[in-house]
UniProtKB/TrEMBL annotation:
Residues 45-159 form the Histidine kinase/HSP90-like ATPase domain. It comes from Streptomyces boncukensis. The keyword Kinase applies. One of its GO terms (molecular function) is ATP binding. It comes from the Bacteria. The keyword Zinc does not apply. PANTHER family: ANTI-SIGMA-F FACTOR RSBW, ANTI-SIGMA-F FACTOR RSBW-RELATED. Keywords: ATP-binding, Kinase, Nucleotide-binding, Serine/threonine-protein kinase, Transferase. Pfam families: HATPase_c_2 (PF13581). Residues 1-21 are annotated as: Disordered. Gene3D superfamilies: Histidine kinase-like ATPase, C-terminal domain (3.30.565.10). This is ATP-binding protein.
């Protein structure tokens, strides 16, 4: 487990991916300086078996923090989708996750090592397709989500923010 500085502390800015195509791109709100912030993170190999392990680690951490159970389940679904996409659609060897909790607001970041140039985008899956709905679920459940480039030649950060509805 490793700790991480709050998002945007290093000046990074999200580059793409508004939560829905009909919504203009908006930058995530910075965490208020006065808020008590809890942070945690972990790294796992980029294997299919890591998806369940990531989901379990996120669930356990959020329970220890006393995060509301319903939002914890939502966070586990989001982490599953982000990890699955990193495993399936990048050439990463490792995938890392960071969690930042401020009050009842949770920020999830999943960082891959992939070199794929396209950014994750929700797509319209047909009724008979088995895959292709993950980012639609994230769009529906998260207050906001997006993608930040880590280094144009080496990976990206996919993030989501969850809070009470």
């Amino acid at each position: 487990m490793w700790l991480r500085h709050p998002p945007q502390a290093d000046g990074r800015q999200p580059l793409v991916a508004p939560s829905r195509p009909d919504v203009q791109l908006s930058w995530p709100q910075p965490v208020p300086v006065t808020a008590a912030v809890r942070e945690a993170g972990f790294e796992l190999p980029a294997h299919a078996s890591s998806v369940g392990r990531a989901r379990a680690r996120v669930g356990a951490r959020l329970r220890r923090w006393g995060f509301p159970e319903d939002l914890g389940h939502t966070a586990q679904l989001v982490i599953s989708e982000f990890f699955t996409n990193a495993v399936l659609h990048t050439d990463s060897g490792q995938i890392s996750c960071s969690l930042q909790l401020s009050g009842q607001r949770l920020r999830i970041e999943v960082t891959d090592e992939g070199t794929e140039r396209c950014s994750p985008q929700p797509r319209d899956a047909s009724d008979d397709e088995v895959n292709g709905r993950g980012l639609q679920l994230v769009s529906a459940l998260a207050e906001s989500w997006g993608v930040s480039a880590r280094d144009p030649r080496r990976g990206r950060v996919v993030w989501a923010e969850l809070g009470p509805q």
